[in-house]
Structures are given as structure tokens and as C-alpha cells.
Specification:
The chain has 327 residues and is α/β, with parallel strands linked by helices. The protein is built from ten helices and 15 strands. The protein binds SN-glycerol-3-phosphate and calcium ion. SN-glycerol-3-phosphate (G3P) binds next to strand 14.
Length: 327
């Protein structure tokens, strides 16, 4: 198993979003992706956090996926449990730590997810509907929750799973779950990874299964010595680059770091990605100040960005709606 690099007032929006995230008739308006849920407000990767984000009007919820000891896919960012859960108060270390891969799903289900960053254990005026809103959900539970919430809010809630391990077990688990739940090329769905090898493998398996669901390659914008703009694939010790045309050969879009210090994400990069047929999503919008956040969202929306991973979903939805209404 190869771990992938990790760079690392509720708005009951009445806006009904037509269309699907990955289909040819995708909506023109930029999409808001709840980065790890409403992670700026509530414990990340929990049904409670996803629900708050949905109530704030997001288009997609984002489960990062890890594999348990017994092969279950669970929504958690790290390959360890100790940063985001109370595992250390309930279990002794295993193999010198708390790797997700060393714990069974049953054991992980006994844990409580704790707030990180600016997150809290509750949000004013919001009561989660789930029976266990702050435990670690399985991928299937996230899928079920998105469908249930879609009915509750009257619009389709998309899912945007990330393969956090470059592992065939991860690839097969994602595809098996999505296939079993009726997802296809027209679904409001993106599958993301920092690994181009994982995405190439997923694409090959999708073709073999006759179900080509949309893929997103995560990384950074780069500028080559010849001046061409390329996608940087971030490895543990180095960044390799691919032309945007190469990326378009196996994905539908790119997810790009918005504040890369080596080479900034530019309008030229977004234009060239679009010309190659790629959507461009940006991560991570983490500005908590409403005024500063509005300016940052606007900067990238004006460049033509198609989707935004946001820690404060309400700020992202407000900025997106203001942008769309002003067009
Ligand atoms: O998946 C886009 C963004 O979430 C990547 O960062 O580390 O939060 O998964 P990370
Ligand atoms: Ca992610």
C-alpha cells in the first residue's frame, strides 16, 4: 500500500442546481465542494459536518478515503487516527502508532471524531439528523447520506471521493461501491487522486466495466523550461509534470493548489486546461474572514475556475451565488 502525498449563519439556499458534475451537460456555474465537510466549523469527515455543508448549499461533499485492517473504506483524511479522533484515549498504539490500516472497522466505529483547526463540536442553530453524527463514516454510509440529504433538501448532493492510498484495493472498493449504488458518467460525482497511476488504473477498470465515471487529477500548476504550462504531480520527494493534453487522456479535470508558491495558478493555466477539455477545481479555500474570503473566491472565479474546495461552505456559496448573479 502506497500512501499518497497530502499537501494539504446557515444559508438554506433555495438555489436548485441542475445537471451533473461530470457529464457533458454540466452546469455552467462554478461548483462548491465541502472540503472534508464543513471542516472549518465541525469535526472533519463526519455526517454532521457533511450535513451542515449541505444545509449551507454546497454542490458536493468530499470524503477522503482510507482502508481499514479488514478492507473497509472509511472517510478520514490521514492514514492515522490520532489527529482527528479520540483513539489514543481508548486504544494502545499498534506498530508504534495509530494507522487506520491497523484497526478494524468495528474498532474504528467506537471512536469519536474531534474538532481540529477552527472546528467546534457544534454549530449554532444546527442539530445533526444522523444518529451518530461525529463517528467515522464508511464510504457506503457517505453515499447513503448524500442520497438521503438530496431528498431532504430537494437538490442533488454530489460526492467527490478521494483515493488516499495508491492501492488496487482502494480502486476496486471505490468502483464497487459506486457501481453498486448506480453511479455512472452522468452522475454528480468526481473521483480524485494525487496519483496519476491510480487514475490511469481507475480509468482502465472503468472502461473494462463499461462505466466511465469522471476523474480528477490533484496537483499543482507548473511552468516548464520551454514556457509551457503543465500539471505537476506531487510525489513524496519530487514533482513530475504532465502536459494538459496528457492529463486529458485519462481524466475529466484537474484539482489544483490555489496558493502554490513555486508557480501560481493563473488564468492562462485555466484557459489552457479548458482548451484541453479539462475542468479546473481549486483547493483549498480556507480563509475564515468573510471579506477576505469573498475576495479570494472572486479572484479565482474571475479566472474561470469551475469548482472550489472550501472549509467554510457558507462563504463559498455566497461568493459563488454573487458571482453568478452578477454575470
Ligand atoms: O482533495 C483536494 C484537497 O482536499 C486535497 O487536500 O489534503 O485536504 O485532501 P487534502
Ligand atoms: Ca481531499
Amino acid at each position: 500500500m502506497k500512501a499518497l502525498t497530502s499537501l494539504a449563519a446557515v444559508c438554506l439556499s433555495a438555489l436548485v442546481l441542475a445537471g451533473c458534475g461530470g457529464s457533458d451537460d454540466a452546469p455552467a456555474q462554478p461548483q462548491v465542494i465541502a472540503h472534508r465537510g464543513a471542516s472549518g466549523y465541525l469535526p472533519e469527515h463526519t455526517l454532521g459536518g457533511y450535513e451542515l455543508a449541505i444545509r449551507m448549499g454546497v454542490d458536493f461533499i468530499e470524503p477522503d478515503l482510507q482502508i481499514t485492517k479488514d478492507g473497509a473504506l472509511v472517510a478520514i483524511h490521514d492514514d492515522t487516527l490520532n489527529r482527528t479522533t479520540n483513539v489514543a484515549t481508548l486504544f494502545a498504539q499498534r506498530n508504534g502508532g495509530y494507522k487506520v490500516a491497523d484497526f478494524t472497522l468495528a474498532e474504528i466505529k467506537t471512536l469519536t471524531v474531534i474538532p481540529t483547526g477552527t472546528g467546534k463540536t457544534s454549530y449554532p442553530g444546527f442539530t445533526p439528523s444522523a444518529a451518530s453524527p461525529f463517528t467515522v463514516p464508511t464510504f457506503q454510509e457517505v453515499v447513503d447520506f448524500a442520497k438521503k440529504q438530496s431528498n431532504a433538501v430537494g437538490r442533488e448532493v454530489g460526492i467527490y471521493p478521494e483515493a488516499k492510498q495508491a492501492d488496487p484495493v482502494m480502486e476496486d472498493g471505490i468502483l464497487k461501491t459506486l457501481n453498486a449504488n448506480g453511479y455512472n458518467a452522468g452522475s454528480k460525482l468526481f473521483i480524485q487522486s494525487f496519483s496519476d497511476a491510480t487514475l490511469r488504473s481507475l480509468r482502465a477498470k472503468q472502461i473494462a466495466q463499461n462505466n466511465k465515471m469522471p476523474l480528477i487529477l490533484l496537483g499543482v500548476a507548473t511552468k516548464a523550461a520551454d514556457g509551457s504550462l503543465r500539471m505537476g504531480v506531487v510525489g513524496s520527494t519530487s514533482v513530475t509534470t504532465l502536459t494538459l493534453q496528457e492529463v486529458a487522456g485519462f481524466t475529466e479535470g484537474v484539482g489544483v493548489l490555489i496558493n502554490n508558491t513555486t508557480y501560481p495558478l493563473t488564468k492562462a493555466f485555466i484557459d489552457q486546461a479548458h482548451a484541453a477539455g479539462l475542468k479546473v477545481h481549486g483547493w483549498t479555500f480556507a480563509q475564515a474572514d468573510a471579506t477576505l474570503a469573498a475576495a479570494e473566491f472572486r479572484q479565482f472565479l474571475d479566472m474561470g475556475m469551475d469548482g472550489m474546495f472550501a472549509n467554510y461552505p457558507d462563504l463559498a456559496v455566497t461568493a459563488r451565488n454573487t458571482y453568478v448573479q452578477g454575470k
